[in-house]
Amino acid sequence: MTLTAFIFDLDGVIADTTEYHYRAWKQLADEIGVPFTRAENEQLRSLNRTHSLKRLLKGRYVPPHQFEEYMDRKGRHYRAFLERMTAKDLIPGAGEFIRAAAAFGLRLGVASSSRNARETLERLGLAPYFGAVGDGLTVAHPKPAPDIMLWVADQLGVDPAACVVFEDSATGVQSARAAGMATVGIGPAADDADLQLPDFRGVTPAEVIQAVGG
Questions:
Q1: What is the pLDDT of residues 122-138, one digit of tens each?
Q2: What is residue 48's predicted lDDT score, i.e. its pLDDT?
Q3: Are residues 175 and 189 in the same domain?
Q4: 59-65: which pairs have CB atoms within 8 A and are 24 or more residues apart?
Q5: Do strands 132-134 and 107-111 pair parallel, antiparallel, or not at all (unpaired)?
Q6: What total of structural domains would you count in the chain?
Q7: Which of 50, 75, 109, 148 could be cross-linked to 132 through a Cys-Cys bond (beta carbons 3.0 to 4.6 Å apart)?
Q8: What domain range includes position 167?
Q9: Is 89 a catalytic residue?
Q10: Same domain (yes/no): 196, 114
Q11: Domain boundary at 82, 102, 123, which?
């Protein structure tokens, strides 16, 4: 099938938000007295807020109302950092690649676990390029389930087999594969993808399509 759509994860693929998320989780961890390191933050890639907080708590029990308050608190911490975000926080080459993909005639979507996906795209100046944005509130079953990938494909009006997904985690690659989509790994953590790239510099949309579907 002809590849006609690109679907991007957001954090770590389009936007270099790793530091912002780490600082927000670290601030929460310090407030509640739980150790939290940068290495542990790396294990949260592509996890939604609920699963991330469970990892951070390391099996500690908190009542449901307190769990919700912790998630809300982390969200407030992150949004405070998000206000500083500009195009300088783009992954190298991402803006140019997305604009080139749109000019090439591809349909573009975002499949993110972040609840702040739309605001992030606005701050990066890229929101107009995307015909569908799935975020942490869009589907009931997060990655590695295929649900968010299938939802974005449906919103774009394309068959899942016509999509190429750009992910930075093994969990995201698993989600895309379960949806029947080709995969491109951005960075070392998604090394099981059909195509592996360090970032978007020096590659064109046509070259990606040739590599994964040609």
A1: 999 999 999 999 998 89
A2: 81
A3: yes
A4: 60/34
A5: parallel
A6: 2
A7: 109
A8: 5-16+87-213
A9: no
A10: yes
A11: 82
Residues 19-36, mean pLDDT to the nearest whole number:
93
The average pLDDT across 133-149 equals 94
CA-to-CA distance for 206 and 183, rounded, in angstroms?
15
Q: Is 168 a catalytic residue?
A: no
Does the pLDDT at position 103 exceed 80?
yes
Return the pLDDT at 191.
Answer: 85
Of 197, 196, 148, 155, nearest to 176 by C-alpha is 148
Burial class (CB in 10 A: 0-12, 13-18, 19+), 21: buried
Q: Are residues 52 and 104 in the same domain?
A: no
Q: What band does 190 get if pLDDT is binned at 50, 70 and 90?
A: confident
Residues 45 and 9 grouped into a single domain:
no
Q: Is the pLDDT of residue 214 over 80?
A: no
- Per the CB < 8 A criterion, the answer to whether 167 and 212 are in contact is no
Residue given tokens 């939802």 in the structure block: 151
- Quote the tokens at residue 42: 């790396």
Instruction: Report the 10 Å Cβ neighbour count for 9.
Output: 31
How does residue 156 score in pLDDT terms, banded at 50, 70 and 90?
very high
Does 138 lie in the same domain as 74? no
